[in-house]
Write a structure and sequence with these properties.
four-stranded antiparallel β-sheet; mainly beta; 11 strands; 0% helix; 47% strand
């Protein structure tokens, strides 16, 4: 069982930056692909970004390309989401999720491929 905890959310002005962290306990994240998703009030939980277990492949939603960067720190068992040039459209609860693990060949934006989820961290961008 992989237990995930997000942190780094908060209130930021439009144009500002935040870095979200996704830390794992129980098991190392090194064999798991990790995705970030977000959910705004009254909307579906949407894909934001994902990184393969070895960092060789990264995916981004079109809405965040060029502004967000996903990375992983294996010794710290943590995955990061650096968010720059934030707008009010980025306001949401952000969740990290881990895939089924054991060195999956691919990484996906499909929510159903991620069985392990954190509790989420709120990001609010004021305009």
């Amino acid at each position: 069982q992989v237990q995930l905890v997000e942190s780094g959310g908060g209130l930021v002005q439009a144009g500002g930056s935040l870095r979200l962290s996704c830390a794992a306990s129980g098991r190392t994240l090194s064999s798991y692909g990790v995705g970030w998703f977000r959910q705004a009030p009254g909307k579906e939980r949407d894909f934001v970004s994902a990184i393969k277990w070895n960092g060789s492949t990264k995916l981004y939603a079109d809405s965040v390309k060029g502004r967000f960067t996903i990375s992983r720190d294996i010794p710290r068992n943590t995955v990061y989401l650096q968010m720059n040039s934030l707008t009010s459209e980025d306001t949401a609860v952000y969740y990290c999720a881990a895939d089924r693990g054991r060195f999956q060949d691919t990484i996906t934006a499909q929510r159903g491929a991620y069985p392990y989820w954190g509790q989420g961290t709120q990001v609010t961008v004021s305009s």
